[in-house]
């Protein structure tokens, strides 16, 4: 890619990766055919589809209509193999539904993004409180629970994954489960809403405490995936970093309140539109401090993009990462473009430089890749982002959309 173009135009965001994968897993909870709409055309959806097929489901993915149709049989297999789980950590989200449906589950311990330790202790603790027996054997998490019962669960930290596992197990458990300190991300709300449409009884959706009364069975539904706030936020940063003007369609600015507020502080003019928002930037951005926190705090998945922005902003910014310690690894790559970033544990000090200069860089995960592409958009000369397959996992049609907005970018290989 060659930096220097102002990005101008319109982009439309589809459903959130971090929601649709879990919605696909939630489909396991009901026999029959569940249809999901606004499904992004990304590799992780294919991996999840393959995982569901191996569990015995029929899965059809219509990329033109952006739908996935999952037909779930009466009897499911209960094993998620390492060859798929290692390609996508989110595979772990079949843990709760399979335990609820089959009474037992073997899931390979996940790999996925290289962004920190990412434990499973809260998932396991929640399931044990509901009566499951969990062990780790030969690289597999083996859980069994002939009967799951309601329980009182308290999460040490509002983990997205642990909240989803426990909710999906609790909807078919006997009795009432109360989960405190749950994650409140829009994707969690989306899953809870789909479960309610399926017949689940969940109170407190969108708050820190969920009360779930188990039911005997759920019904399949058609559900529209919530829009991807991280993709929308990435486009917002793209407008600001390039001094451009981008209208982001099918986006919910409410889901990006802090991030958009930071961009306003950086100098952007942001307005809401019928189905999204518009970001206009006409000056050099000012540095903005950020602190990542669980929702509604600033999302860790936008942290690399904001480091890229700060790297060419006026002034210095302090960035604090509270979720994934290894996420700062990408600043070494950003430094290859001439960024001035010093890290110390959870903190990064970003001193804005007047210009970045294009270079080959390596993307280590989805969001780091997005951050490097954003930096490449403003770096003088040619930037080559290696490992761009990571980016494809989170951004459907990224290169095409960048091109349509006026960027000079080519996909290779
Ligand atoms: C999800 C998102 C990811 C996002 C993250 C935080 C998906 C597929 N991924 O990841 O893009 O960055 O939420 O918004 O939806 N932890 C434990 N023990 C546990 C569970 C988590 O220690 O049992 C720790 C993790 O190591 C991490 C932190 O809690 O440091 C956050 O994890 P969590 O919120 O669960 O994120 P994920 O579901 O993995």
Report on the architecture of this protein.
This protein has two domains: about 10-15 and about 225-405, Enolpyruvate transferase domain (UDP-n-acetylglucosamine1-carboxyvinyl-transferase, Chain); about 15-225, Enolpyruvate transferase domain (UDP-n-acetylglucosamine1-carboxyvinyl-transferase, Chain, Alpha-beta prism), CATH 3.65.10. α1 (about 15-25) runs parallel beside α2 (about 45-55), α1 (about 15-25) runs parallel beside α7 and α5 packs parallel to α6 (about 160-170). The chain has 14 helices and 22 strands. A four-stranded mixed beta sheet has the order 1-14-16-15, with helices on one face. It has helices spanning about 15-25, 45-55, 80-85, 95-100, 120-130, 160-170, 185-195, 230-240, 255-265, 305-310, 330-335, 365-380, 390, 400-405; strands spanning about 10, 30-35, 60, 65-70, 80, 105-110, 135, 140-145, 150-155, 175-180, 200-205, 210-215, 220-225, 245-250, 270-275, 275-280, 290, 315-320, 340-345, 345-350, 360, 385. With about 425 residues, it is of the alpha/beta class. The chain starts with 7 loop residues before the first strand and ends in a 9-residue tail after the last helix. Uridine-diphosphate-N-acetylglucosamine (UD1) binds near residues 21, 90, 122, 161 and 323.
Low-confidence stretches: 112-117
User: Helix coverage percent of residues?
Assistant: 25-40%
* CATH level 1 name of the largest domain: Alpha Beta
Q: What molecules are bound to this protein? A: uridine-diphosphate-N-acetylglucosamine
CATH topology of the largest domain: UDP-n-acetylglucosamine1-carboxyvinyl-transferase, Chain
Nearest-integer average pLDDT? 95
- Alpha carbon gyration radius: 21 Å
Instruction: Please indicate the percent range of residues in DSSP E strands (runs of 2 or more).
Output: 15-25%
Q: State the major sheet.
A: 4 strands, mixed
- Coarse shape: elongated
The DSSP helix count reads 14
The CATH H-level homologous superfamily of the largest domain: Enolpyruvate transferase domain
Kindly report the spatial arrangement of strands forming the biggest sheet. 1-14-16-15
Structural class: alpha/beta
| End-to-end Cα distance | 14 Å
């Amino acid at each position: 890619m060659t930096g220097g173009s102002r990005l101008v135009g319109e982009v439309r965001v589809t459903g959130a990766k971090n929601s649709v994968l879990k919605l696909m897993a939630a489909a396991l909870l009901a026999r029959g055919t569940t249809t999901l709409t606004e499904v992004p055309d990304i590799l992780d959806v294919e991996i999840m589809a393959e995982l569901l097929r191996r569990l015995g489901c029929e899965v059809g993915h219509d990329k033109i209509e952006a739908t996935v149709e999952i037909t779930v049989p009466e009897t499911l297999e209960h094993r998620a193999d390492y060859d798929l789980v290692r390609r996508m950590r989110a595979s772990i989200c079949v843990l709760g539904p399979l335990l609820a449906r089959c009474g037992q589950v073997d899931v390979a311990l996940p790999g996925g993004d290289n962004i920190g330790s990412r434990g499973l202790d809260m998932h396991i603790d929640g399931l044990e409180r509901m009566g499951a027996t969990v062990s780790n054997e030969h690289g597999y998490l083996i859980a069994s629970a002939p009967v799951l019962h309601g329980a009182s669960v308290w999460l040490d930290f509002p983990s997205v994954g642990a909240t989803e596992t426990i909710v999906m197990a609790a909807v078919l458990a006997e009795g009432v489960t109360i989960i405190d300190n749950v994650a409140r991300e829009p994707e969690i709300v989306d899953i809870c809403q789909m479960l309610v449409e399926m017949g689940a009884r969940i109170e407190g959706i969108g708050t820190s405490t969920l009360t779930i009364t188990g039911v005997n069975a759920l019904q399949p539904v058609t559900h529209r995936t919530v829009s991807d706030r991280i993709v929308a936020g990435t486009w917002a940063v793209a407008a600001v970093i390039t001094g451009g003007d981008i209208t982001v369609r099918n986006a919910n600015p409410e889901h990006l309140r802090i991030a958009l507020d930071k961009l306003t502080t950086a100098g952007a003019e942001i307005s809401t539109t019928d189905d999204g928002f518009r970001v206009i930037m006409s000056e050099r951005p000012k540095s903005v401090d950020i602190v990542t926190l669980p929702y509604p705090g600033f999302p860790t998945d936008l942290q690399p993009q904001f480091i890229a922005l700060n790297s060419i902003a006026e002034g210095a910014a302090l960035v604090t990462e509270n979720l994934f310690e290894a996420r700062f690894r990408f600043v070494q790559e950003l430094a290859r473009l001439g960024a001035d970033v010093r890290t110390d544990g959870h903190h990064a000090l970003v001193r804005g430089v007047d210009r970045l200069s294009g270079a080959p860089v390596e993307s280590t995960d989805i969001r780091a890749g997005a951050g490097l592409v954003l930096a490449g958009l403003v770096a003088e000369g040619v930037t080559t982002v290696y490992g761009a397959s990571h980016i494809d996992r989170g951004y459907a049609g990224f290169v095409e959309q960048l091109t349509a907005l006026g960027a000079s970018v080519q996909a290779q290989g």
